[in-house]
Write a structure and sequence with these properties.
Elements (H helix, E strand, L loop, with lengths): L1 H8 L1 H16 L18 H23 L3 H28 L5 H18 L4 H35 L3 H29 L10 H14 L6 H16 L4 H9 L2 H17 L6 H34 L12 H24 L4
Helix pairs in contact: 1-4, 3-4, 4-5, 4-6, 5-6, 5-8, 6-7, 7-12, 11-13, 12-13
Length: 350
């Protein structure tokens, strides 16, 4: 329901984008003598249209040759991906542009529900149906992630004064590199830890399994709970509370939610120490920049650690058997990070 609300709220953006694309495609003569400002220059919509058609053809062939043997079932799955990806990427791009958060998890869960219902209706059930639904969810999830990442790139480029056409051109290479890199990282993570061992927390995956299994195995989905959730989303929207972040907070485990709350408290503390609004804004922006660095650094070191273990390099901590000491050290380091974030953010100037 939150996804549908997002689509409805983005209807003007969707129709506006379609109108601009159609206008540029129909402009055979180009811009003529009209000089477009460098910071507003994009790659030709004709190249974009060709790329979209090429990607859609590959997606259909992938479904037909690699996932679903029946051509008409593959066509139905392809149409589900086409419609949902087109609508949801707009919502995701709008969300990341305005509030900086990409609702990938919520949108992917809704995709799985819709895809599972459609696939069951056309006779695709059981294990093959689960695989097909997960592939559909994976395609849409990847599209949402790419849309959010690209909008973030354009936002940074706008602030720096770059040319959008250059960013859009190099994004093709970035897409290929990131696809190969992420695929390799996932394989290494699975070989090293395993996604079902409990070492890697995956609340979204558990939620996806809870959604798909009842539908595909004929056990009956909890439609009453889905209805209650939809009603709750409507109430939250009426109360001006973002439904997607609220819902994500409900199913993410407490150990993952707690750092988010602490981060919010740090942001409030840093952004409310001065009566000067511009100074508070500068401090929050500096804190956001530092926190982003911690996020990226933590993720990269996690990958490095997995690669080291995958390569057979093991390191033993001398206090590994003392849980109290290990937790105490972790708490002290966590407090040190909080102290550093607060101090470094408060040192920002206008």
């Amino acid at each position: 329901m939150a996804g549908l609300i997002g689509i409805w709220n983005s209807r003007k953006i969707i129709t506006g984008a379609l109108g601009l694309a159609a206008q540029e495609l129909g402009n055979k003569g180009g811009n003529g003598d009209v000089k477009v400002e460098r910071t507003q220059r994009d790659i030709s919509m004709k190249y974009v249209a060709f790329g979209v058609i090429f990607a859609l053809v590959l997606t259909f062939l992938f479904f037909y040759l690699g996932v679903i043997n029946s051509w008409w079932q593959a066509l139905i799955a392809f149409l589900v991906v086409l419609v949902i990806a087109f609508l949801f990427t707009t919502v995701a791009a709008n969300a990341i542009a305005i509030v900086g958060s990409n609702p990938v998890s919520g949108m992917t869960l809704m995709t799985l529900i819709v895809a599972s219902v459609v696939l069951v209706a056309i006779g695709l059930k059981g294990t093959s149906g689960i695989v097909a639904a997960l592939i559909i969810g994976g395609v849409v999830c990847t599209a949402l992630s790419m849309a959010g990442g690209f909008i973030t790139d354009l936002k940074v480029g706008y602030w720096l004064g770059s040319t959008p056409a250059k960013q859009e051109t190099w994004k093709f290479l970035g897409t290929l590199v990131s696809a190969a890199t992420v695929g390799g990282v996932i394989l290494v993570m699975n070989k090293t830890y395993g996604f079902t061992s409990g070492e890697l927390a995956a609340p979204q995956a558990n939620a996806m399994a809870a959604v798909i299994d009842p539908l595909m195995m004929g056990e009956g989905a909890p439609w009453a709970l889905y209805g209650i959730g939809a009603l709750l989303a409507l109430i939250l929207n009426f109360c001006k509370v973002p439904a997607l972040p609220f819902s994500l907070g409900m199913f993410i485990p407490l150990q993952l939610n707690t750092p988010l709350v602490i981060g919010g408290l740090i942001s409030w503390f840093v952004g409310s120490r001065s009566k000067d609004a511009d100074l508070n804004k500068a401090r929050v922006e500096r804190g956001t920049l530092l926190a982003s660095g911690f996020i990226a650094g933590g993720a990269l070191l996690g990958v490095v650690s997995a690669i080291m273990r995958f390569a057979g390099f093991e390191y033993a901590c001398p206090w590994a058997g003392n849980d109290v000491l290990m937790q105490s050290i972790g708490l002290v380091l966590y407090l040190a990070v909080i102290f550093y974030l607060c101090r470094a953010s408060l040192s920002a100037k206008k």
